[in-house]
Amino acid sequence: MLPLDLLQIFKPLLWVIPIILLIGIAKSPWFKGIIGEALVKLVAKIRLPADTYVPIHDVTLLSIHASSSDTTQIDHIFVSKYGIFVVETKNYKGWIFGNEKQAQWTQKLYKKSYRFQNPLRQNYKHQKALQALLDIPLEKIHSVIAFIGEATFKTSMPKNVTRGVGYVGYIKSFQDVVFSDDEVRGLVAKIEEGRLKAGRETNKRHVAGLKAL
Q1: Which residues, in sequence order, are bridge partners of residue 79?
Q2: DSSP for residue 63
Q3: Which of 167, 33, 29, 163 is nearest to 96 (CA)?
Q4: Distances in Å between the alpha carbon of 29 and those of 35, 91, 96?
Q5: How far, in Å, CA of 18 to CA of 200, rounded?
Q6: What band does 110 get if pLDDT is binned at 50, 70 and 90?
Q7: Residues 6+ apart with CB under 8 A from 36
Q8: How confident is the model at residue 27 (pLDDT cuts 50, 70, 90)?
Q9: Which among 66, 119, 136, 168 is least surrounded, fewest beta carbons within 10 Å?
Q10: By C-alpha distance, which of 46, 69, 42 is closest to 57?
């Protein structure tokens, strides 16, 4: 135990510790990811009518090469008569460099550069897992990348790589009906039935699969 006089000196500083911990959490990729997904969910709830675009969030599926720990986690799925939209959320700041063919993209923040997986490739795995579950043509499953935050694209990006609420406009740009109302209901039911139960065990299994890559 600290001597009483030292305890009295440090006591006024004890309130600083929780604040430091909270700041550290707020800056973590995990927390930023949660905030980004929450923003996408909120905007979609306002801008994408649920009677047309059925939302399913935070879906973990067995991947197409399923092993004991091989899963894929999808941030958002919107099922509609215009197709299925698979949305991958990225909450990044700074300049973003990349193209469709690169395995990794670059984030430049101030004077530092960071590499991260090409989200188009990441989302393609999600599309394939969903296709395997639903047994439908891949062209009816659309990949959407939503950068939430103060990111600026410094290279030309495909239309399905969006900033801010741009993902809403991209989704609404599809107007050709490809599924009937009954098919939409059936697809939603299949996804709900095929998703792994949310919880600690599913999260542990997904993280173990990522580490094995």
Answers
A1: 54, 84
A2: -
A3: 163
A4: 10, 8, 16
A5: 25
A6: confident
A7: 89, 90, 91, 146, 148, 149
A8: low
A9: 66
A10: 42
